[in-house]
Design a protein that fits this description.
Radius of gyration: 14 Å
Strand content: 25-35%
Shape: globular
Distance between the termini: 11 Å
Low-confidence stretches: 1-11
Order of helices and strands: EEEEEHHEHEE
Number of strands: 8
Mean pLDDT: 86
Strand order of the largest sheet: 1-2-3-6-4-8-7-5
Length: 134
């Protein structure tokens, strides 16, 4: 799994991280590491020639819409992103298999359509969501 970090990040190596967010992780986590305030969670286990999809959960301070447990647990990428979105964590990149791209995008789009804001809240944490390829 590739880890993107800011300037000077070349000498920083990721280390294993605990799931200390507002809920337990799912069983599909292959690897979870952290670099400073960013965490990287791999659900795909795939490598080489496969363009993964990432769900990015980022810290937000804007007005939020509260998500319920069903909305969170119905998307494993979101469940695991929040499971690792613990104290002093600014972002979590959840890597998943490309076959999940449509499911992830549709779920995030549905949450955004139901919401009056661009930010969400669950378990006392405010966050925004983004879906990225690569």
């Amino acid at each position: 799994m590739s880890y993107r970090s800011g300037p000077g990040g070349d000498d920083q190596r990721p280390s294993d991280c605990p799931a200390n967010g507002p809920l337990e992780p799912g069983r599909s986590v292959v690897e979870a590491v952290e670099c400073n305030t960013a965490r990287f969670v791999d659900l795909s286990g795939a490598s080489g020639g496969v363009t993964p999809v990432h769900l990015v959960v980022s810290d937000a301070e804007a007005e939020t819409t509260t998500l319920d447990r069903t909305q969170v647990l119905s998307l494993p990428e979101l469940q695991n992103g929040l499971a690792y979105f613990g104290p002093e964590v600014d972002s979590v990149r959840v890597r998943t298999h490309p076959d999940r791209r449509v499911n992830v995008r549709e779920h995030v789009a549905a949450l955004e359509e139901q919401s009056e804001t661009d930010s969400f809240e669950f378990g006392g944490r405010a966050f925004s969501l983004a879906v990225q390829l690569g």
